Amino acid sequence: MKTKALLLFVILFALATPTFAQGPGAQTASPLDLRPVAAVIGMAIASGLCGLAQGRATAGASEAMGRNPAASAAIRFALILGLVLIESLALYTLVIVFLRT
Amino acid sequence: MHKLTAFLNENFGNTANQLLDALHMPAADRTHPWQEWLVTEIFVFLILVVGAAMLRGSLSAVKPGKAQLIVETVYGFLRNTADEVGIHHSSKYAPYFATLFIFILACNLIGIIPAFESPTMFPWVPCGLAVATFCYYNFMGFREQGFWPYLKHFAGPIWWLAPLMIPIEIVSHLARPLSLTIRLFANMFAGEQVTIAFLKLTLLIAPAIFMGLHVFVSFLQAYIFALLAMIYVGGAIAHEH
Q1: What predicted TM-score, i.e. pTM, was given to this entire model?
Q2: Which among B78, B85, B179, B232 is the top mutation candidate for probing chain A, defined by the most A β-carbons within 10 Å of its own β-carbon?
Q3: pLDDT tens readout for residues B44-61
Q4: B182: chain A residues, CB-CB within 8 Å
Q5: Which of A51, A61, A36 has the alpha carbon at shortest distance from A90?
Q6: Does this complex have an ipTM over 0.90?
Q7: Does domain A34-101 have CATH number 3.10.450.50?
């Protein structure tokens, strides 16, 4: 019941965003530049998800190494490969940030 | 490196401009066609070639010196990794992987020395390495399997899925050099930017820690580039038994 109320409040808040719109008579010299804001939000989302994914990869690898210490070398190999490939996804976002800002 | 670049721009600037114009790629700044990252890359290349030539003179099977043991360890490690990835005759392809690893490692690490900048910090150097790797694994695939069989394996195992498989395979093959480029470039670039950012904030300890992280990332990225090259070559030469 509380989550439904919270969801309702969030939707009402989002629907009320036209109140932030500019009045009809006001003319500003330069429009609001949202590119840095978009870059920061995009990079934050990419890094956060990358952190989650790498945490899951490390957790799986640590558990596997605990269960089967003899296969540590192969598991470590797969772990490093997986971590680097996940890292590169966050880095693609960084490149776009530098290209588009 | 600044002085060497300035020397080359003064004395060989016209040669460079002529070469670039002949290739229809005129330099952005005609007074400085030699860029510092290119001079550093050629410098690293010359150091490696001269070092290898000096090592080759002192190779010995019965009494190996320290340098020979180090190089043998690196080469053996990469050849064993190629065996693990699934390449059967890894000795045929190991020289390329070892060259890739040693060159990328040297390019990454030379940026730690204060007067130098890593060539891999500029997008063109990893792009060149990635395009070379792309050409290498496709050429090895053509050489190993023949022209038409290699192209036919893009269609996948089931023939009526081929119209779906071929565009997917082409896009994924084209994404490989892109991802190799961006991974190496972004790691090196971000490592340096982070060190600079912390140099502006604190003075000594934090930038030193980030430079240490940058050294570790240099080793890791060189290894990953060589490892992915091995995986691509392994996928290209794999025979369906």
Answers
A1: 0.84
A2: B179
A3: 999 999 999 999 888 888
A4: 88, 91-92, 95
A5: A51
A6: no
A7: no
